[in-house]
Amino acid sequence: MPSAPGSGSGSAGVLPEGGTVRMGLIGLGSMGRHHARVIRSVEGMELVAVADPVGDRHGVAGGLEVLPDVASLIGAGLDAAMVAVPTYLHEEVALALCEAGVHTMVEKPIAATVGSGQRVADAFTAAGLVGAVGYVERCNPALLEMRRLIGAGELGEIYQITTSRQGPFPARIADVGVVKDLATHDIDLTAWLAGSTYERVAGEVTHRSGREHEDMVVVTGRLASGIIVSHTVNWLSPVKIRETVATGEKGALIANTLTGDLTLVKNGDVTTEWDRVSAFRGVSEGDSTRFALARREPLLVEQEGFRDALWGRPSETVSMTEGVNTLRVVEAVLESAATGRTVTL
């Protein structure tokens, strides 16, 4: 199994290894409040400034002044920043930080459109700055172990990857639909697990909650490696589901990313005397193993990865180029849903 594009490796650090990273945070909403808590707990990071034009709704600033905008945040003297503002503001805020020479991680998706995201990625590359996108699902212990096992050949050739991400409507989201907010996770993690890009996608969406943006989507597609994929994502289910299943020639890996559980079900090799079943020449259920995994908070792992990238240590941060590639697939899903056609990438 090839490595995913952008897999981290050690390089010369842009900041002194072991030195304190002076962090800024802009956006103190539902995600920003968790980033504030986590940044404060990461060894080698210090949260020195926070900003949000609507104030500190969740009371996470502590003794820090709540600054009104990105310019005042930059004025605090930062090494790096976390951007957790609404998606439509990502480009404006990230480019301001880039111009000021501040290394930056942007919450997913990288921006509102592919063009916008490409401008951000190009700017950080040209400036020689570390730019990353916060796809926290890549830091989930079940998915990290799933990827390791796939890479080790535990499933043999991978045939299919499916995801289900369903639950109640989040009041925090107003500027994008379920495809750019939630399905972007599944598209990113699928390409990462498989070590392959998307070749084509087809999508169907519905609008059931009276909002401008879609609230349900079903996606099918194929990766360049030949793996077939499907994603079921919605904001209208009373049951919260977070499941990823990789099926291959030797069995299936099932990840519950709500609990961090991972189960391997091997293909069975037990013969059967039941005529109706034995006539079917597929596989049967074999031994099942539920792995005992260290369950570290994914957001903490994500911020540690960003710190390590700044220090030049091996890191699995998601590059801005990967963020743009994921957004390109997301927009293809929406194009397919609008036109009724499969979109080739």
TrEMBL record:
Q: Report the Gene3D superfamilies cross-referenced here.
A: Dihydrodipicolinate Reductase, domain 2, NAD(P)-binding Rossmann-like Domain
Q: Where is the GFO/IDH/MocA-like oxidoreductase domain?
A: 144-253
Q: Name one Pfam family in it.
A: GFO_IDH_MocA_C3
Q: Which UniProt keywords apply?
A: NAD
User: Gfo/Idh/MocA-like oxidoreductase N-terminal domain: which residues?
Assistant: 21-135
Drop me one GO molecular function for this one.
Answer: nucleotide binding
Give the PANTHER family listed for this entry.
Answer: BILIVERDIN REDUCTASE A
Record's protein name? Predicted dehydrogenase
Supply the source organism for this entry.
Ornithinimicrobium cerasi
Query: Taxonomic classification, please?
Result: Bacteria, Bacillati, Actinomycetota, Actinomycetes, Micrococcales
